[in-house]
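retry 2 of 3: previous attempt timed out while embedding magnesium ion. Reduced batch size to 1 and resubmitted. Inputs unchanged:
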Amino acid sequence: MNSLGGIRSWPASWRSATKTTASMTTPETVTKVAQVLTVAGSDSGAGAGIQADLKVCAARGVYCASVITAVTAQNTRGVQSVHLLPPQFVSEQLKSVLSDFEFDVVKTGMLPSPEIVEVLLQNLSDFPVRALVVDPVMVSTSGHVLAGSSILSIFKERLLPIADIITPNVKEASALLGGVRIETVAEMRSAAKSLHEMGPRFVLVKGGDLPGSSDSVDVYFDGKVFHELRSPRITTRNTHGTGCTLASCIAAELAKGSSMLSAVKVAKRFVDNALSYSKDIVIGSGMQGPFDHFLGLKKDTQTYRRSTFNPDDLFLYAVTDSRMNIKWNRSIVDAVKAAVEGGATIIQLREKEAETREFLEEAKSCVEICRSRGVCLLINDRIDIALACDADGVHVGQSDMPVDLVRSLLGPDKIIGVSCKTPEQAHQAWKDGADYIGSGGVFPTNTKANNRTIGLDGLREVCKASELPVVAIGGIGISNAESVMRIDAPNLKGVAVVSALFDQECVLTQTRKLHKTLKESKRDH
Ligand SMILES: Nc1ncnc2c1ncn2[C@@H]1O[C@H](COP(=O)(O)OP(=O)(O)OP(=O)(O)O)[C@@H](O)[C@H]1O
Ligand SMILES: Cc1ncc(CO)c(N)n1
Ligand SMILES: [Mg+2]
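retry 2 succeeded.
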């Protein structure tokens, strides 16, 4: 805030998220969490207002507390009714959280009456905060008045002058400027300039609703320099809450320590990504659908997906090999198709020599094939490829990326497997959050040069120690699969094979044969 030094007074140490303080007896680690307070209205449809603000901050890794100014009965068709909270009660909420938390940023949305703005101003002067983001919400996109002209004078005279940034859309900018016409980018610029004269340190005039513009242009003004933030307009009905989302994202980025311009740029990109990821989702029957703040409801990930990892999937684990595919003149996709058709219960793409772009395209096709048949597909080593093709998981070795880091990148629902030769490694894999281990090489193999073999005894030892299900790997084929499955270990769920399937004339036939052998050995036990 201007009067308080605002975001200019950011502490130098701010960027280190974790600080360690020594206490008398034990050192104590304190993790600082960036914190935003949103002061806004509730949207029962949860696309805008408080609900959007909470989702954005969660998506951006920032804690968000919420003071509710009004409750709206609102859905994708419009606003049916608005209930204002008594100013005294808004004040009690403000006091409650401002006296307790250490907010980095306060963001305001719907402030429906001058009395509510008044209690906000009073509380901000009692409990100074570092930065204030004001989204001067007045009219919903559906045309409903959320804050009438009665708030204009207190906004202009007392709220805007202490704001670090204001983010009006074109209609709100026009209302704040006494009804000037804003229909072009040039008029947005001059509006931004006039609004800046009212006192906020930065102004962002949003052009989402600018008529007849093929790009979506926002005009940013810092008092000296204009920036036009431009992105192609996304054709979608799901634009409900874009404004709240943008302002909350700016607040979240500021709370983490960004400069204003970079916070605004990140926020614009966040809205843009969220809109394009969810442009075709259908939520509600009205003209103004909400979008997905977590960027997760991608259409192509809504197809069939297993809810949890099933250890029995390790039964016939097929691992592809780029050299073998080249040798037999097969594409990865053809190799995978044949293996799945022959009875492989899980696939791992291990394509050490592949070019990234080509591999990604092939991996995407393999995901489609496997998903349509209910078979999981994992990627060896390449976390980036796994994320990009939305594979079911990854398999990593001891010298690849650490499993706990892989888990944090892939999230809680993906499968992670780790190669382990020793009981200690197996125990560590479990502690780090893996789902299964691959243990071997059981027998000598050409696929991995200089790989120490552990033999059936070594495999048994690892299985005994392992809290996780195990798949055996290394030199296993039709002739020796039975001997592997016969070791006395209930958590040994299957065998992983490379050459036995893929260094062969016909992948389909070999997979069928191995499947039969494994089934027989299971039946005999
Ligand atoms: N169809 C679209 N494609 C791309 N970006 C868009 C689109 N619609 C809005 N935006 C962007 O979303 C942000 C919010 O702008 P907008 O002018 O819609 O705010 P608003 O009217 O306050 O939003 P709300 O719908 O929440 O009331 C801006 O960065 C704008 O450029
Ligand atoms: C509660 C609420 N706040 C803000 C907006 C603006 O999108 C809305 N539609 N509803
Ligand atoms: Mg809009």
